[in-house]
Amino acid sequence: MSGILADGKTAGAAPSDGLAVLESQRSTAETFGIPLAVLAELTHRCPLQCPYCSNPIELDRGGSELTTAEWKKVLSELAEIGVLQIHFSGGEPTARKDLVELVQHATDVGLYSNLITSAVLLTKEKLSALADAGLCHVQISFQGNEPVVADRVAGLKNSHEKKLEAAKWTRELELPLTVNAVMHRQNLHQLADIIQMAVDLDADRLEVANVQYYGWALKNRAALMPTIEQIDETSRIVEEAVVRLKGILAIDYVVPDYYALRPKKCMGGWGRQFFNISPAGKVLPCHAAESITGLEFESVRSNHSIAWIWQNSEAFNRYRGTGWMKEPCKSCEFREIDFGGCRCQAFALTGDAGNTDPACTLSPIHEQIFKQAEREAAAHQDRFLYRNFAGGTLETEGEHGA
Amino acid sequence: MAMSRNISVSEASRPKLPRHARLKFDETRQVWVILAPERVLAPDEIAVEVLQLCDGVRSVGDMADQLVAKYAAPREAILTDVIGMLQDLADKGFLTEAREKTS
After folding, report:
1. If both were cysteines, with which of A15, A37, A100, A385 could A85 make a disulfide (CB 3.0 to 4.6 Å apart)?
2. Nearest residue in chain B measured CA to CA from A134
3. A398 preceded by cis ω (within 30°)?
4. Which sign, positive or negative, has the C-alpha torsion A326, A330, A332, A338?
5. Is the pTM of this model over 0.90?
6. For residue A202, what is the nearest residue in chain B, using CA coordinates?
């Protein structure tokens, strides 16, 4: 009876994803079945100001956010059309006063709920109320393994300490914990200690996620880009830890694609197995998609159902499958493996989302991008531009945005 | 603490799904699924039948007895299969043992 469990990550890049397993017997007309998991970005408000944030530069203001009633309607609709998991994210989802109510509603309609949080606004009572409302899993971001680096990156004093506290409460409530560590040139030296921190916090999973350069992160690329030596060292540390901590801590590793040879299968392919809903209610193929100008995204506030938007809207269909591809993607043997990489990155770096993602060695500008990354990493321009609603604030001596 | 997750399934174990792993029938796709952090697992029919017996009260031995009656297969073979399947699930962190009630 071995091999009875078809295992699939809900939003990952595994070639044998859960959706493929569950929908393998469907006709091609139904290829784009409803995703198993959806990301609900409840708000773009956040007490942290991380320079690596992948939210768009144009953040949704508080006033444009969906109301409690609108989110509840969305959650009910998602459950009805076959979504199984909901990731409550942001911005900082706990900045919404109605989070407990929304988690309870997700539970009531049968959705499995994940909280993706910076944790600094959590209290033990709040977390306990979320657990009682049926929250299934907590993911807490960490910016380092100690306060000096972590609080500087977060742009918030005492944030690291608060995160440690919230992680302990999470385990006391017997909720599973994922530690999410976003890594870049200025904290990669702490990786081994971050892994140990995750073990000490009794986390179930650790995501070692190298910064992906969208939104604010792209603006801060020169301050964040790791050196190639750091990347080699990182891979070595992660590979060793994966073996050593088998059965104790599961580790997911996201490589920095500027130094990759093949592009990532971004979002499992555009409009193929994932969508997210922005604070203002736009249904997006990924949370960075609004950075691509010239694409119109439909809203849950429109007359269309979410299923209709997923299946029929122009933005979802524009880069679906392989029909939109130009060379070198068009005739590439990997076109159904990586779907040409990331459309947002192609747009940000080449000005055309229909081009090959420059992370791919077959892109005509791959070499140029790679060299640029190396130059930026070597230049050690370490000053951050902190993320905020005012268009960003440059770090000053002694004032780390905190 | 983390080590306590590594459970060893035996005939006397009284396993159950932890709160973060939910067994659910997916009406849309007409299949049983286990929902877990960042994952959706698709157990096969026999696995589903065993998992539905994992209530933290029944022992693995009790489950085997029940399945013997239904499938008319040797108890020994069924027990081996059930333990193997549950251990696989436990190793992935999707199965826990019922605790002794202390309250």
Report:
1. A37
2. B19
3. no
4. positive
5. no
6. B2
Closest by CA position to A382, among listed A182, A257, A253, A227? A227
Six-digit token pair at A57? Answer: 């530069």
Q: Do A1 and B81 touch (CB under 8 A)?
A: yes
pLDDT value at residue B88 = 86
How high is the ipTM of this complex? 0.81
Interface test with A, best of B25, B35, B87, B96 (most A CBs within 10 A): B35
Task: Using alpha carbons, select from A224, A199, A223, A220 the residue that is nearest to residue A210.
Answer: A224
User: Is A291 or A92 the better-scoring residue by pLDDT?
Assistant: A92
Predicted pLDDT of residue A401: 59
- CA angle A118–B20–A245, rounded 5-degree value: 75
Quick count: other Cβ atoms within 10 Å of Cβ A366? 20
| Mean pLDDT, rounded, for B53-73 | 91
Among the partner residues B1, B37, B42, nearest to A22 by beta-carbon distance: B42
Among A5, A8, A11, select the one facing B43 at the smallest CB separation.
A5
B19: nearest Cα among A38, A9, A176 = A176
Distance of alpha carbon A218 from alpha carbon B100, whole angstroms:
53
Position B19 scores a pLDDT of 79
Query: How far apart, in whole angstroms, are the C-alpha atoms of residue B91 and residue B73?
Result: 27
Per-residue pLDDT tens digits for A137-163? 999 999 999 999 999 999 999 999 999
